[in-house]
Amino acid sequence: MATRRSSAPPQADAGRRSVTVEGLHKTYGSRRGPVEAVRDVDFDTRDGEFVSLVGPSGCGKSTILHIVAGLIPYDTGTVDVGGEPARPGRREVGIMLQKPVLLPWRSVQDNVLLPAEIYRLDDGASRNRAQELLEMVGLQGFEDKHAWELSGGMQQRASLARTLLPDPSILLMDEPFAALDEFTRERLNAELARLHETLSRSVLYVTHNIPEAVFLSDRIVVLKARPGEVLEVVDVDLPRPRTLDMITHPRAVELSAHIRGLLGQTERVEAA
Hints:
The chain is built from eight helices and ten strands. It has helices spanning 61-68, 108-112, 114-118, 123-136, 152-164, 182-199, 210-216, 250-271; strands at 13-28, 35-47, 50-54, 76-81, 84-85, 93-96, 170-174, 202-207, 219-223, 230-235.
């Protein structure tokens, strides 16, 4: 499937790639035989760029993200992350999943500090960093609370702060706000956009929500239904900083319609 290559956004370094995926294939085994998840996937993210993977449920978006994270193996292709082959446990790669996975017996601050224990970071500097991040995500005053005392949106804010504590240069995010109500989700998307613009980290973001992808991204990798293949890499030429009123911006609406058209056209072809 041909992929349209797009130019780098102004804030990204066109000469450096944080993630490169080339010719990626992944097939799962099942009782009924092999299930091809993704086929011949090619895309990249550049330093400081926000790239989303968009497509229908089951198209392999999360599989691709987990492969980039080094959490699952793949069959053929090349996956390069930060100049090295993908592998788990790298401090420079932060991962945020759909559920916050906070430890219920620990306070919010101690949950955020968990990576400092894993990577054996300086305790004093990590505590200062944790406090800065909690303030950055709007959780000042909740440091001593436990996860079960927080709303779902607040738990995800704590999870984001924990992900950022080791100062990763690459963030991998697998539908982190999917379980939240629309109002909370929009607020957190605005916060994520602000943090991205402030911290200039590379982000690979999985979502099936097209307007969300348009609002957050510099480029969007559009995947067809299983097996996942790249239909097109779409440039998002909305100005930054992003504000919530851009969700209804005519260009955002146009881009969303274009992506829906790509996916709808593929569905019609496969049904014929």
